[in-house]
Each structure stands twice: as structure tokens, then as C-alpha cells.
Backbone:
């Protein structure tokens, strides 16, 4: 618990507290009076209402669309499943600038829908909601599906044999077991959409603004730190309150589950209902997730002299001048940063999850919520906080390369904790006790009992941490140096220039980012399957 | 670079294993080599995302002075300046490049710069030297924010493209213009300031009411306006349906760059009467670790070598008028004779309330 606590104190609490204090302190005195003025501003109230409303709607829609998907991926076997599983995560890690651009090509003026049916959804709430489903589909599928695949189907079968209907069996056996995972996933989606920035800004147009957009505007554009500080605290309160509530619900519902090898729980679809479910899931994934990604690929190949790889070839050269390194080198940087960030996230998040499983009490639950806070904190707050808090020896990290993976790990840790915690908590403590009685040291008990059971969750967590690190943009853009450019930052820089060449290069680089993510996730799937296939569970 | 990083990952593993407190040591190793003193210490340039320079030009600086240049980018221009304000007295680097006339007052009021008169300043026209006499900042380049038009679209419609602000509110140009959010985008802000310069403190709101009635569309950022909405982008095969967009006077040359052979005429043009001049400055950061290197870098930014590199790297005009411009610039670019402009003080005084009023009036 000491390591994660120190990590968060140093790289989250300290910087954020510093920037908030800068806003609220004036000549050595605290000025909380400012809060009243900001909080009664009708514009702020409008923003707050819209933030909460669209987040709730997005979450409901995402869960509704993705739950059948979670079932299909957990319980059904079909050709191409592994590939599809990897692909659905790709939107989640794409930088919003890129994904929004692809989305506009579908929904916007002159987009595909417009050409076919004259339907335009940009600058409407629908565009925001659909984009949120696009981005967060994987969160539900992975978090819920990961657990679902490990639930023993025989329990449900036993219930049915005892006379329960299919629905009753599901409601009484599977649903309670899944509830914590569903709640965790819904919470994550709510967090992401509550703090939505790029999607709301670009797809919603200037009419819509979330709290996060407002914090960014007040900090980065207007340098109105007092207002930004009040809004940051407001967002903290909202997010913190939700997290505490969630921690309580999850605790009440969690019980020791019988986890089994996922390789044995899925089978070929049988019956019309399962086929229909599979069909509709594939359709949703194809239309909502793959189509926008396909548009990216199409645009990256649409060179001035006909379809071809001209834009890709241009990426290798340094002629563009926007970079002191060729854009392709950003791929190497991104992978290296993401690997380091994943490692940090796994160590910090893994230790935190272990500590949270072992101990109980209000303090620990508070820590659980604290670990999630970075997801609900504006990147600009963290970035500016790093700038003013980590600027003096011995902790002058402003020019150190480790800053990028550290910032990325900050958003990776919550994923590790969220993915590990339900599974760790579901490990029957009696197994550990038995091991201890038989003379195993705590470490040995962990290695022999916990590790085999949570390896799958660990890999899923690693995959998530790696993927969010690859796509992390908000904090990276503040601290990335020219010679350590990451893929999303490179894409954003290219998109910021006029002309066919940079635009095409941006699309090509986005396609590469997409492929890198897909391949990494695909490899992960393979590692996992190989190991669990050897019957360790 | 990659091998360098790989070597470092092992270090990171160790650091993580040892606990976070040892990270400080790692921070030191991440510092640019040779920062510890002597003539060859690297000089750090803090700048925005759009900064660009040829490798050869940077090498020349290193050959001349024995110093390497470290480039630290901080997001867009506004964010970069705000970062510098926040880290005042203990700056991230030695020189800041990229503070423009819309942000200049904020930077100067917070006193983030040390005065230094760069060599070559006399070759910069008077009107760009906004900090005359005090030399806290040095003008390096300028660019004009103007309405761009899609030449092909107007030819097809047999309609003359608009030239002035007054044209834009005429019925012939209804529903054709897309601009950026003045609250979040610098060309958007520039266009708002241009109308304030043109129609005055009292008149600009009326103008925007007319513009709104004439169907102006507001999107959030330049990328979206230009890449997604403007029909003339991407070498003339833009996907959007708006033939008018607020962009830069140098966007047309950018559109033909990389085309072979060069077309007779660029696919886009500039409405010359709708421009707002943005001048970009550089300055020596107060409290810089390497002030000597910083001064040499400021001199270099005004050198012929760097100034000649500016147009094709950043698509703006060099501040010095005596350097050669590349062919795509002279052939496809426009020279704006009378751009709108406002003093930095006037901008600082009014920007917030104008943006606020604009936000209430236009996008809703």
C-alpha cells in the first residue's frame, strides 16, 4: 500500500493541490469566497447540468448496446472472434482528434449518412452519444465480458435443472455475480463521459460544453486560475462522491465466485436467439466501430494521384519539418513509453488492488476512490500541476523523459485496479487460508493461489494500461519533448497544418496507431489463450 | 532515439522497483547532456506545437555556437504562454518563441522576459516591433488570418469570391462561411478581433448579428473547419461543402506544396480585405539557466538562415523583409497590404469581454 500511496501523493495529489492552491490563494490567504460567485453563475450551472445529463445518457446507451456484446464475446465461439475482440478496443485508445475526424466523415455534412439518406447528426447530442458508445464499448465488453467468461455456466445449468426458467436462472445466478463488474464498467463509462473533452468540443460544436471543457478553457486559454480551481474542486466532489457510492455498492454485492477457465465456458452459438444475438452484435460492431475506422484507412490511402501508399512513404522523411524526428520514429517512442507506463501501472495498480483486497475499513475504501480520481481530473490540471509542482530539485522532472510514462501510468492505474479488484476479491479466501495452514508463506500463497487465478485479469489489465498509454494525449501533449514525440501528439500536429500532404500523413499515422494497438492487443489475446489453454486453472 | 529509450526502460524498471523516491535521480539523467556548464551547454527553446524548423538550420546553429538546441513544446500558443507565466522565475527553458500580439500583454504584464536586443532587429520593419525601446521580445515572423475561398467552387457557380468583411454579409454569400470558435481557437479569435478592428467597439456585435443571419457556421477548431468543412482543403478535394473558411493567408501555398508539377493556379485563394495580422515574438525567459545561449539563439532566430527557413516550415512570413521568399510563397501566396490590427494593450483590455459577448451572441 505504501508504494501506490506514495506514487499518488507525489504525482497526482501534490501537482493538483499545487495548481488548485495557486488559484485559490492570494497573498498567503485562502479565498474561498470566489467559489460562491462561480457556483451561482448561470452559465456554470448550465454546463454542470449538461455534463451530468449527457454522461448519464451516454452511459445508459453504452451499457445497453454493449452488454449483449459482452455476452457474445464471453460465451459464444465464432470465427474471427479474437480479431474482433482486439478491434473493439481500438476506438477506445484512439486520440479523440483522429476519431472525431473519422466520425464527422460518417455523420457530418457530406458524410456517408448525409449522402445516403440526407441525415446529418453532427452538432447534435446524438453525435456525442454515439461517439461515446464508439469510444467506450470496449470498456463494458472487456470489464463485464472478462468476468462473465470465467463464471461457471454449470451453476446456471444447475438452477435450470432445478426448474428455474432461463430468465430466472440468469437473473438469480449470473446477474448478481456480474453486477459488480457491470457497475464498475458503467462507472468508468460515466467517468469518461462526465469528463468528456474532445468529443463534446468537436462533435457537439461550440454550443455544448462540459465541466472539463470549461476547466480547460479557464486554465489554458484565459489563465483564470481561481475559476478553474473552483471548477476542478467541483468536478472532484462530483467524481469523488460517485466513486465512494460505487465502492459501497460493489462491496455489498461482491461475493466469492467460482471462477473457471474461460476456454471452457464458450461454445458455438446454438438456437435462433444466440444466432440473432451474435448477428446483431457483429452488425453493431461493424456499423458503429469498424466503419469509422474504415473511413480513416480509406482517407489515408486517398492520395492526390489515386489510391496508394504515398502518404505512408512521406512519413519516413523528415522533410515535413514539423518534427525534429521523422513521424515514423514516433511509433518507437510510443511503444517504449507505453511499455514503461504499463509496467508502472501494473506495479502500482497491482499492489493497490492487493492491498484493497486484504484490508477493509473506511480509509481503504477512500483510497480505492482516490485511485480512480485521475480519470476524473482534467489533463490540463494535471499537466499544469506537474509544471509548477515538480519543478525543484530533487524532483525537477519537467525535462525528464520519465514524466510521459508517469502521466500515462496515472490514467493506466485505475484500469489495472478496476480489472483486478473484482477478480481478486472473488478469490475464495479459504484457498489462501488453506495454503497458509499447509505452511506456505504469504508470498508463496499469493503465487500459487492468487496468481494463477488472476493471471487473465492481469493480462487484460496490462492490455488496457498499454492501450490507454498508447493513445493518451491530453497530458502527454503538455510534457512531450520534440525528440520524444508520441503517435497521438504527432497526429495532432499533422492535423494542425494545412494541405493535402499533412492531412494524409495524419490519416496514415492514425492508421498505423490503430494497427499498432490492434496488433498489441491481438498478441495479448494469444498469450492469454496459450497459457490458459494448457489447463493451469 | 529508440535504442536510447530501450536502455532507459531497464532503468525505469529498477526505479519502479526501488520506489518512487529514487525517481529524482532519474530526472537528472533525463536532462540534456552537457547542461552542467561551460560554453557548450545546450539551450532550450520553449515553444508551441506549430513551431517547425529544418534540421540543417538547427545544425548550423550548433556549428556556429557549439550549442545544441533542445525544443520543448507546450501545446498551442496560449497554453505555452500560460505555462511560462505559471513557471515564472523558474522557467522550463531559456527562450520562449511563439507569443503573438493577442497574448503579448499577458506575457509582458507578468514579466516573464529579460530584455535583450537581438542582432538584426534593425532589418525588421517598425510596425512589427511592438516592444520598441524595451526589447523584452523580438519579432520573428508574422502571418495573416484571412478568409480563404475555394476557387473551383466559385468558378463553377460563376460567382466572384468575396473580398471584404462587408461582402461576407451579402445575400450572395449566404451559408458559405465556416469559422472557428473565438473562445477556443486562435484563428477564430483573430477573425473576431479583425471585425472589432474594422467595425469598432460598438459596431462589431451588429456585424456578427448580420453574419449570423447570413448563415455563418461556427465549429470549434481550425482542424475541423479547414479539414472537414472547407471544400477547398486537401489540394482542392476537400470533403466539406463550405467554400469559405477562416484560415491563414499562407494556406494557399500550403495547398500546392508537394504537388508535382505545380498547378497553374492554387486551388484556394484569399479574401484580401478580411485579414488580421498576427506577429509572433521570441524572448529570453527571466531566470533562464543559460542566458548566454538564449541570447545567441535569439540572434539566430533573426539570422538570414533561420528567417529564410520560416516560410516553408511554419507557413508564415519572416519578420525580416530582406530575405528571399520561396517560389510557392511568391507565386501562390498573397501580400496583404492593409491587414486589420489592434494594439496588444487594447486586445488585453477587451479580449475577455469580447469573447464572452461573442459566445453569447454567435454560436447559440
Residues:
Amino acid at each position: 500500500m505504501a508504494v501506490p500511496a506514495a506514487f499518488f501523493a507525489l504525482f497526482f495529489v501534490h501537482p493538483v493541490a499545487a495548481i488548485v492552491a495557486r488559484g485559490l490563494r492570494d497573498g498567503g490567504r485562502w479565498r474561498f469566497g470566489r467559489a460562491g460567485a462561480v457556483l451561482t453563475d448561470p452559465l456554470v450551472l448550465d454546463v454542470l447540468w449538461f455534463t451530468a445529463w449527457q454522461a448519464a445518457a451516454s452511459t445508459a446507451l453504452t451499457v445497453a448496446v454493449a452488454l449483449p456484446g459482452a455476452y457474445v464475446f464471453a460465451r459464444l465461439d465464432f470465427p474471427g472472434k479474437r480479431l474482433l475482440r482486439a478491434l473493439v478496443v481500438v476506438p477506445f485508445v484512439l486520440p479523440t482528434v483522429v476519431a472525431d475526424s473519422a466520425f464527422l466523415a460518417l455523420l457530418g455534412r457530406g458524410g456517408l449518412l448525409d449522402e445516403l439518406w440526407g441525415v446529418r447528426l453532427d452538432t447534435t447530442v446524438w453525435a456525442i452519444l454515439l461517439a461515446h458508445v464508439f469510444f467506450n464499448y470496449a470498456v463494458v465488453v472487456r470489464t463485464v465480458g472478462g468476468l462473465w467468461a470465467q463464471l461457471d455456466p454449470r451453476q446456471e445449468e444447475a438452477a435450470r435443472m432445478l426448474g428455474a426458467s432461463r430468465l430466472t436462472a440468469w437473473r438469480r445466478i449470473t446477474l448478481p455475480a456480474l453486477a459488480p463488474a457491470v457497475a464498475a464498467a458503467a462507472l468508468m463509462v460515466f467517468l469518461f463521459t462526465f469528463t468528456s473533452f474532445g468529443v463534446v468540443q468537436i462533435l457537439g460544436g461550440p454550443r455544448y460544453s462540459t465541466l472539463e471543457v470549461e476547466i480547460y478553457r479557464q486554465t489554458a486559454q484565459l489563465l483564470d486560475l481561481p475559476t478553474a480551481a473552483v471548477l476542478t474542486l467541483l468536478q472532484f466532489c462530483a467524481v469523488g462522491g460517485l466513486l465512494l457510492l460505487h465502492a459501497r455498492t460493489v462491496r455489498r454485492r461482491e461475493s466469492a465466485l467460482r471462477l473457471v477457465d474461460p476456454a471452457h465456458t464458450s461454445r458455438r452459438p446454438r438456437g435462433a436467439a444466440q444466432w440473432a444475438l451474435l448477428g446483431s452484435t457483429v452488425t453493431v460492431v461493424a456499423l458503429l466501430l469498424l466503419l469509422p475506422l474504415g473511413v480513416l484507412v480509406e482517407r489515408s490511402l486517398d492520395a492526390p494521384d489515386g489510391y496508394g501508399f504515398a502518404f505512408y512513404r512521406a512519413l519516413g522523411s523528415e522533410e515535413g519539418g514539423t518534427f525534429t524526428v521523422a513521424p515514423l520514429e514516433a511509433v518507437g517512442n510510443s511503444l517504449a513509453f507505453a511499455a514503461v507506463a504499463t509496467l508502472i501501472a501494473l506495479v502500482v495498480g497491482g499492489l493497490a488492488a492487493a492491498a484493497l483486497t486484504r484490508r477493509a475499513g473506511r480509509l481503504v475504501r477512500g483510497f480505492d476512490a482516490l485511485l480512480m480520481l485521475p480519470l476524473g481530473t482534467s489533463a490540463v490540471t494535471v499537466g499544469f500541476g506537474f509544471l509548477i509542482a515538480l519543478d525543484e530539485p530533487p524532483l525537477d522532472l519537467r525535462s525528464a523523459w520519465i514524466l510521459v510514462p508517469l502521466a500515462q501510468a496515472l490514467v493506466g492505474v485505475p484500469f489495472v485496479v478496476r480489472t483486478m479488484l473484482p477478480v481478486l476479491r472473488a478469490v475464495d479466501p479459504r484457498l489462501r487460508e488453506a495454503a497458509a495452514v499447509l505452511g506456505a508463506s504469504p508470498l508463496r500463497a499469493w503465487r500459487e493461489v492468487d496468481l494463477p487465478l488472476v493471471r487473465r485479469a492481469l493480462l487484460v489489465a496490462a492490455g488496457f494500461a498499454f492501450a490507454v498509454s498508447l493513445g493518451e494525449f491530453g497530458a502527454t501533449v503538455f510534457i512531450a519533448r520534440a525528440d520524444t514525440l508520441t503517435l497521438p501528439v504527432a497526429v495532432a500536429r499533422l492535423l494542425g497544418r494545412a494541405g493535402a500532404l499533412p492531412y494524409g500523413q495524419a490519416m496514415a499515422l492514425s492508421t498505423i496507431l490503430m494497427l499498432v494497438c490492434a496488433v498489441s492487443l491481438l498478441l495479448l489475446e494469444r498469450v492469454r489463450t496459450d497459457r490458459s489453454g494448457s489447463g493451469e486453472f | 532515439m529508440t535504442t536510447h529509450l530501450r536502455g532507459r526502460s531497464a532503468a525505469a524498471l529498477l526505479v519502479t522497483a526501488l520506489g518512487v523516491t529514487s525517481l529524482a535521480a532519474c530526472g537528472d539523467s533525463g536532462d540534456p547532456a552537457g547542461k552542467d556548464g561551460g560554453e557548450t551547454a545546450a539551450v532550450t527553446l520553449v515553444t508551441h506545437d506549430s513551431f517547425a524548423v529544418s534540421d540543417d538550420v538547427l545544425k548550423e546553429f550548433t556549428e556556429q555556437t557549439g550549442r545544441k538546441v533542445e525544443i520543448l513544446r507546450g501545446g498551442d500558443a496560449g497554453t505555452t504562454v500560460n505555462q511560462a507565466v505559471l513557471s515564472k522565475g523558474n522557467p522550463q527553458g531559456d527562450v520562449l518563441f511563439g507569443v503573438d500580439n493577442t497574448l503579448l500583454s499577458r506575457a509582458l504584464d507578468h514579466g516573464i522576459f529579460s530584455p535583450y536586443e537581438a542582432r538584426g532587429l534593425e532589418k525588421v520593419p517598425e510596425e512589427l516591433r511592438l516592444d520598441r525601446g524595451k526589447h523584452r521580445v523580438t519579432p520573428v515572423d508574422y502571418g495573416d488570418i484571412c478568409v480563404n475561398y475555394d476557387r473551383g467552387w466559385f468558378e463553377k457557380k460563376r460567382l466572384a469570391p468575396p473580398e471584404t468583411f462587408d461582402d461576407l454579409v451579402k445575400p450572395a454569400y449566404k451559408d458559405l462561411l465556416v469559422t472557428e470558435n473565438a473562445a477556443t481557437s486562435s484563428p477564430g479569435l483573430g477573425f473576431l478581433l479583425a471585425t472589432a478592428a474594422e467595425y469598432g467597439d460598438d459596431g462589431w456585435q451588429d456585424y456578427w448579428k448580420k453574419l449570423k443571419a447570413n448563415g455563418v457556421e461556427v465549429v470549434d477548431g481550425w482542424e475541423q473547419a479547414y479539414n472537414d468543412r472547407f471544400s477547398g482543403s486537401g489540394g482542392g478535394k476537400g470533403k466539406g461543402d463550405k467554400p469559405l473558411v477562416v484560415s491563414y493567408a499562407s494556406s494557399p501555398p500550403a495547398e500546392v506544396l508537394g504537388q508535382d508539377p505545380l498547378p497553374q493556379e492554387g486551388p484556394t485563394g484569399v479574401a484580401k480585405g478580411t485579414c488580421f495580422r498576427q506577429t509572433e515574438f521570441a524572448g529570453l525567459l527571466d531566470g533562464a539557466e543559460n542566458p548566454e545561449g538564449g541570447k545567441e539563439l535569439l540572434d539566430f532566430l533573426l539570422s538570414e538562415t533561420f528567417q529564410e527557413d520560416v516560410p516553408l516550415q511554419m507557413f508564415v512570413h519572416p519578420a525580416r523583409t530582406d530575405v528571399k521568399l520561396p517560389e510557392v510563397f511568391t507565386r501562390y501566396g498573397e501580400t496583404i497590404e492593409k491587414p486589420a490590427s489592434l494594439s496588444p494593450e487594447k486586445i488585453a483590455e477587451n479580449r475577455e469581454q469580447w469573447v464572452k459577448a461573442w459566445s453569447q451572441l454567435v454560436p447559440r
Confidence is low (pLDDT under 50) at residues 529-537 of chain A. The longest helix of chain A spans residues 42-75.
